[in-house]
Write a sequence for this structure.
């Protein structure tokens, strides 16, 4: 799914102004706050334009980090079903954490992300390990896949290595107690 | 009383004292003295022993927050504290000279904590011009520790929600790592 070629993009949800994306700089520009992005858009006009590495940026830099847009799109696209490019049987492991200080997120996102940092997991395994709803696990895999921060393996789970983790005690460890104490 | 020790480490000027002040529920105990290295970091004072703060989880449980001095001549303090610590928030100011090398130095120094998922990295002063990106830090850490995924966030150490995110991520990461270790599996 990752795009490495020098490319300019314009994404225009119906009724909104276009969002300009410059893949070379992993940046986008939209004059609305990202919170205004329509999460249930039914039609989005997408235009692409090849460019070169030496061409000037599409907009003034630094603009917004493209990860933030991809996170929003990935979480909300596909209506909770797996993204069309995901293959059944694949298992996923995080390669790097997203910069959550710049992204809207929930405590459940932290749990799911932390678990994905430990081993390759299928969506089912991730949901079970975190006691999250299957749809929540699917949405975060969609988002991280779109952000290209997952390592993907088609190897099945090794039953002798018990690579699926023991279920964590949901919200009863220090994390849960501190969350309650801090009102998060 | 159950206690959990969290360290705040990193070079001088990264914002360790401020981070503890932001998170602590008590008045922070500071051990500041005149900074004799103003050619390195231009601030009037620096921590020479420990900064200390607390978060009460309940009447019977607390999180102790220790800021360790950044200069290597105080590294004997690091040895004492890292034995007691469950985790560490490593702060690096992005406008330091070669901040990625600094980050890797501290990760090596505190490798026991890192190996059990007990490190979160906060990049402070990322709003100043230049400096590596979060991806640059993550890639450099991945090159050295390919089996560990260290969370790296940009932070403003004065921002309570950002510092709480760093703390909660640290604890969640330790608990997730522990779940795998207890199950007898290693990162695949």
């Amino acid at each position: 799914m990752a795009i490495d070629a020098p490319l300019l993009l314009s994404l225009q949800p119906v009724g909104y102004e276009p969002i300009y994306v410059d893949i070379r700089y992993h940046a986008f520009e939209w004059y609305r706050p990202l919170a205004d992005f329509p999460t249930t858009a039914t039609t989005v006009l997408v235009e692409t334009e090849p460019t070169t590495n030496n061409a000037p940026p599409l907009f003034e830099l630094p603009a917004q980090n493209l990860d933030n847009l991809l996170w929003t799109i990935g979480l909300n696209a596909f209506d909770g079903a797996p993204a069309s490019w995901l293959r059944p049987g694949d298992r996923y492991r995080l390669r790097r954490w997203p910069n959550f200080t710049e992204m809207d997120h929930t405590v459940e996102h932290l749990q799911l992300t932390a678990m994905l940092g430990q081993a390759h997991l299928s969506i089912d395994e991730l949901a079970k390990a975190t006691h999250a709803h299957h749809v929540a696990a699917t949405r975060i895999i969609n988002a991280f896949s779109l952000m290209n921060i997952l390592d993907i393996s088609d190897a099945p789970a090794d039953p002798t290595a018990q690579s699926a983790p023991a279920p964590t005690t949901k919200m009863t460890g220090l994390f849960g107690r501190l969350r309650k104490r801090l009102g998060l | 009383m159950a206690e959990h020790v969290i360290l705040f480490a990193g070079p001088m000027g990264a914002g360790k004292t401020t981070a503890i002040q932001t998170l602590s529920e008590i008045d922070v105990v500071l051990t500041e003295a005149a900074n004799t290295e103003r050619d390195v970091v231009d601030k009037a004072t620096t921590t020479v022993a420990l900064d200390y703060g607390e978060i009460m989880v309940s009447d019977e449980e607390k999180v102790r927050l220790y800021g360790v001095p950044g200069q290597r001549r105080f590294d004997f303090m690091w040895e004492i504290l890292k034995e007691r610590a469950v985790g560490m928030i490593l702060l690096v100011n992005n406008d330091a000279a070669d901040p990625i090398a600094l980050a890797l130095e501290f990760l090596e120094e505190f490798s026991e904590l890192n190996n059990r998922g007990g490190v979160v990295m906060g990049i402070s002063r990322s709003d100043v011009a230049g400096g590596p990106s979060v991806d640059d830090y993550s890639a450099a850490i991945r090159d050295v520790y390919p089996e560990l995924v260290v969370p790296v966030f940009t932070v403003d150490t004065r921002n309570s929600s950002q510092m709480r995110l760093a703390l909660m991520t640290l604890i969640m990461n330790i608990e997730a790592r522990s779940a795998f270790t207890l199950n007898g599996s290693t990162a695949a």
Q: What stands out?
A: Residues 35 and 43 of chain B are 7 Å apart (CA to CA). The interface with chain A takes residues 4, 55-58, 61, 63, 117, 134-135, 138-139, 142, 149-155, 162, 164-165, 167-169, 171-173, 175-177, 179-180, 182-188 of chain B (CB under 8 Å). Chain B has a mean pLDDT of 87.
